[in-house]
Amino acid sequence: MTERRPTRGEHQKALAQKNKKSAPKPSKKKWFKRITLTLVAIVAVCFIGGAGLFAFYASSAPELDESLLKDPVSSEFYDKNGEIFATIGAENRKYVKYEDIPKDMINAILATEDVRFFEHGGMDFYRLGGAILANFRDGFGAQGASTLTQQVVKNSFLQNEKKLKRKAQEAWLSFKLERKYTKEEIFEMYFNKMLMSGRVYGFGTAAQYFYGKELKDLTLDEEALLAGLVQRPNAYNPLKNPELAKKRRNTVLGLMYQHGKITKAQMDEAKKVDVQAGLADDATRQKFSGSKYDAFLDVVINELEKNGDGSAMAEGIKVYTTLDPNAQQTVENIMNDDSNFPTEDIQSGVAVIDTKTGQIQAIGGGRNYGAERGFNYAYDLKHQPGSTMKPLIDYGPAIENLKWSTGQTLVDEPMNYTGSKQTITNWDNKYMGAITARKALYASRNVPAVKVLKEVGIDKAKEFVGRLGINSENVYESDAIGGGDITMSPTQMAASYAAFGNNGVYNDPYSITKIVYRDGKTTKDYTPEPNVAMSDYTAYMVTDMLRDVVGNKPDASGTAANVSGLDIAGKTGTTNYSSADFGKHNLPDTSVPDSWFAGYTSNYSIAIWSGYEKHFDPITTWDERRLPQHLFKQIMSEISQNVETSSFKKPNSVVEATIEVGSKPLKLASNFTPNEKRQTELFVRGTEPKEVSNEYAMPELSTPYNVSASLDLEGQSINISWEHDAMLNPETDEPLPTTFEVSATREGGETISLGTTDSKDIKVSNKLEDGNYTISVVAVVDGTRSKPGTTSFQISGTTDEDDKDKDKDKDKEPVSPDNPDVEEPTAPDENGNNGDNGNHNGNGNDNSGNNGNSGNTGNGNDGNGNTGGNGNNGNTGNNGTPPGNNGNNNGSKPPTTPTEPTAPDDGTGSTE
């Protein structure tokens, strides 16, 4: 068999496979060459494209304008109505020529901002490369590379944005600037136009503002501090943030040493100087005031800094703010009127915020506040809040997480902090025993507040206040009464309280709605997003309790803040010195460092702090303590005029129930719960109690008396009447529904029911046989029966003769039985006093002291509570009938004049 030869197709396929295997592979050198050529092509394309884009952007750059180069560009500030209220730019600026700038001042600036300034041509490519590497290593924005020339250009012509177009124009204009002006002229431009702090422009102005000196008189440490301000003018302000300022100053000194501008000995010596040692006083700085509403403007500038736009004012921006000029003017008028303050030196900070939006309407930075004062008591202050913290960290979280009622039973009693022998005291060094959460809050009791925080738990409380803008790394039991780690400003406090008046929705406080950059088109929105911080039931129930703080209840702590006609809720607060402080600083027993009041309507939330500039200059009198309340009342009254203020509305998630105070768990009050133990409180719907308390049994029903019975003339019916002292409803003082059961018992025989009635008489058909009867009347209330009131009654057979006699005597009065068994009341003894001849005008609400019919004078004591104090309300007399009347507890007492405060036992209690 011959072998099959491959076809032509198979032969060609085999040949191709052979050639493929034998073809030589490209070398690595060729591959490298290909990659290199490709990269070069890409770079060339990018370079050409970049150059073209750079040329395009550069062609649209503005022309150099010498006036803009030398002078700051003014920024404009608008109020909520769109009206300009401030313009900040070259006002009050001291212009300094280059030859008048001290050498050390020049070295400090160059070492910090641009050490190669006299070597580059506007762009420092060496520094730019280092910045690029730093940004790759540490993240974008880790290091900048702007030269002094670029900063002058940016602040003169361009807006502060990290866009390629702006960078390209900045580079091109920097190159042109270097070609047109000398290095010294450019440095002089920089030196005189940079924003140094607030509304202070230029180093020469800053020297006078911060130190009250000419540049030539500055010391090395002072020059270093000024050189470091430019990066973050407000953050490094030594008046407001001395620690940050010191750190920045020392960084500048280190850079000066690193670049050979000073020796190590000079650096070390300058670092030892107190950063606030040479600062000028307030009077020196007052001359820099150049606008209205300086305290508010300070807050706006701080907010620009906080949002990364601290230097944007030097670029000529328009700032649209939340300022209410009427509210601001009201605050300033009140703050600048010395007659509103009890002492010459006491200070206050005021923040007025829109309850619904969080917009800051007005700021009172201090008495007679001037521009660049340095410390704004409404915004910069961070002090312990005292008892104003209780709604925020105690009662709010308890209602939110545990769904507590406002009537929750709390016991005010001696108690120590957990794991400590330190006793928690109240401002009056007394304890009230079992009280409602409502009373514990409006009377500002400390022990119940700590118990509430412990019940809620630190973590949940911390989370709750965090949603109200209050962030604290640590929360302690002492924070329950505002004496722990948490500190607040009036601005933050007003915003936090506003959430209660805004159905639980919290807004960060803000003073800027938007800024518009120099081009008139680019904007930046500053309005924060609202956040739901709590349920609507929590917000309303806390609000309802805080209404009582400013109400007319005897133990309310904030009555001086009440404004007639406005639905207001609020809370007082004071802080304490420690026990050691009293001895160490020789403080009077009544001393406290801080006094607060925070209150709100549906329109405005206002928080006010009062105290002295130095912590150990104490508040010692009630006039000083109540200053925040008085200021609140004046401000809220004036700004609420001609403004519709709606009342707080109870949401559907909240219900009311009348409880028996002190019951645990809470129970409904019974008909027999005493008035002083009945309280209508709020509950989260579905948690209201269903069980009625049986703590107080129905009192014994009085026995019907003056019972009488008679036959009508024909003997066909029996008429029965009586008298009865009705039992009163303890809640309304109205008679309780009473029925009367009437029966007749024949002598030696059975008892026959004659009927039931709601009135005090009854007429029944005469179905009784002849004989002697006892007629009984029993009062019945809610199933409880009284003892019977009785009378004797006789029925005898009648004859025709009897009828004749009856006709003769029909106009005569019926003759009563010789010895009726009737419970007649004892005639009053004209000399008796009903067992209640006491004085009911004590410390409570009982001014009755009735004279009764009990025979002899009672001589007991009714205690020292809310029903009359130390009056003699005791016994019911000796064998008097009926019982003596203990008086009417519906009197009212006049407000108690507060006593001077006493020194606390410990260092953390709130001394309300």
Automatic annotation (TrEMBL):
The chain crosses the membrane at residues 35-58. Coiled coil: none annotated. Residues 18-27 have a biased composition (Basic residues). Residues 1-13, 805-815 have a biased composition (Basic and acidic residues). Residues 831-854, 875-891, 899-912 have a biased composition (Low complexity). Residues 787-798 have a biased composition (Polar residues). It catalyses: Preferential cleavage: (Ac)2-L-Lys-D-Ala-|-D-Ala. Also transpeptidation of peptidyl-alanyl moieties that are N-acyl substituents of D-alanine; [GlcNAc-(1->4)-Mur2Ac(oyl-L-Ala-gamma-D-Glu-L-Lys-D-Ala-D-Ala)](n)-di-trans,octa-cis-undecaprenyl diphosphate + beta-D-GlcNAc-(1->4)-Mur2Ac(oyl-L-Ala-gamma-D-Glu-L-Lys-D-Ala-D-Ala)-di-trans,octa-cis-undecaprenyl diphosphate = [GlcNAc-(1->4)-Mur2Ac(oyl-L-Ala-gamma-D-Glu-L-Lys-D-Ala-D-Ala)](n+1)-di-trans,octa-cis-undecaprenyl diphosphate + di-trans,octa-cis-undecaprenyl diphosphate + H(+). Residues 855-874 have a biased composition (Gly residues). Keywords: Carboxypeptidase, Glycosyltransferase, Hydrolase, Membrane, Multifunctional enzyme, Protease, Transferase, Transmembrane, Transmembrane helix. It comes from the Bacteria. Pfam families: Transgly, Transpeptidase. Residues 703-802 form the Fibronectin type-III domain. Residues 1-27, 784-912 are annotated as: Disordered. NCBIfam families: PBP_1a_fam. This is PBP1A family penicillin-binding protein. It comes from Lysinibacillus xylanilyticus.
